[in-house]
Please model this.
Amino acid sequence: MNGRDEALEEVTELAYRPLAAVVLAAGEGTRMRSATPKVLHPLCGRPMILHVLDRLVELPLARIVIVVGHGAESVTKTVQEQLATETPVEFVEQRRQRGTGDAASVGLAGSGFDLDGEDDVLVLTGDTPLLRAETLAALATEHRLTDAAATVLTADLDDPFGYGRVIRDERGGVERIVEQPDANDAELAITEVNSSIYCFRRGLLAPALRRLDPENVQGEYYLTDVVEVLRSAGHLVVAAQADDPTEILGVNDRAQLATAETILRARINRRWMREGVSMTDPEHTYVDASVELEPEVALLPGTILEGRTVIGARSVIGPHCRLVDTIVGDGTTIEHTVAKEAEIGDGVTIGPWVSLRPGTRIAAGAHVGTFVETKNAEIGEGAKVPHLAYVGDAEIGPGANIGAGTITANYDGRAKHRTKVGRDARIGSNNVLVAPVEVGDGAYTGAGAVVSRDVPPGALAKGVPARIEEGWVKAKRTDDEDEEP
Ligand code: UD1
Ligand code: CA
Model:
């Protein structure tokens, strides 16, 4: 059993009080300077708040309340669409963003909390995307074992700038938390910071929140001040330190977003390498959280895999590929390629310099070569489109070969039409297949053909031969024009 499973089991065994969670996500995120709500900025293709919620739902929770405000509608919609969980999730709106303490009060006012219930509540923010489930479980366990009124997840940071500092008492308990703008020099020198992730006895948190005031530099209701309120009422507040301080990284601006994404990407890459994927240069390999890779896949430098992309066993992708929502079979090789919403079979070779646009389906053993663009096209088993071609709205039969420089003229200026090339057909170099048109099974076309009528199976279509007019230049040019040819 690994650490994660153990931690989750332990907290489940200790579940003698129901556990709920309140996630604060109403803030504007001013420091992001963005029209998008902060918690919806993506890391590795997934909105920030979903990274937090994905980990949270691994815990045995009775319910999750999400406090929304800035961009409430889009935050709610995104979570509803993308979070997979059985745990009931409720959204409550904080109309004015008056601080984290006010946001927590709004969260506790959500339905489903019965007023005198003796449950525990995890309070966390939507801007800590690197948090792990085992850390949350360890926090809840520590809270229960110490029987504290509040347990604060803290971390020791080399650079604590911007975070609230944790002031301990002589017995190691937490005395108070002081925010960066309110701290004096001695307090600023403290390196233990507040993660903004806590576990509270809910019955004690609610009245403590009512006693907060906004008498501080930022004029806000600070959730952090609850520590002092609980302490002055004689309650115990303890700290649980995160083993890995990077986990509590709070994202407030785009530089922190980039830092968090780099850490998350490294984690994703390590996980895939453990599962048997090789990466020549993991620092230059970008795999979204939603991507699936099979064993023995090799990812070469500059590879970017996004969305619902799946790569089959033993396929080699890269260098320099961007695949979005693309399914790749087993034993396929793709280099220097951009693919979007494409399906690629087993044992296919693609590239270099290929653009596969939506609706491209390439069957097993096919080859799509240098400088080829495809769109809404089916390329049959073993078919070849080796050089300089455009294949759009087309079906290329199994075993067919498309000559260099061939294009499907699919657009008549108003509508798109289809081209069909039969099994084992041979299209000559530099053809124009004027759709709608069909070239039958086994048919041939000559070099440079403009094929505007259907070609029966087994036939040859010869195209536009250049007619030669001797003496044309001399006859057309007068003396006062350019020099003799
Ligand atoms: C907060 C903590 C700080 C801690 C840091 C960790 C307070 C006062 N400070 O500071 O001690 O070190 O997190 O990252 O709590 N939010 C609301 N409604 C509001 C205000 C904020 O929902 O009215 C939400 C935000 O959307 C955000 C979270 O609360 O997700 C934290 O707010 P933020 O402004 O980022 O707090 P920090 O300054 O980072
Ligand atoms: Ca923050």
Summary: The chain has a mean pLDDT of 94. The chain has ten helices and 37 strands. The pocket of uridine-diphosphate-N-acetylglucosamine (ligand 1) is lined by residues 24-27, 67, 69, 94, 97-100, 102-103, 125-127, 163-164, 177, 179, 193-196, 222-224, 250, 252 (CB under 6 Å). The chain has two domains: 3-254, 274-475.
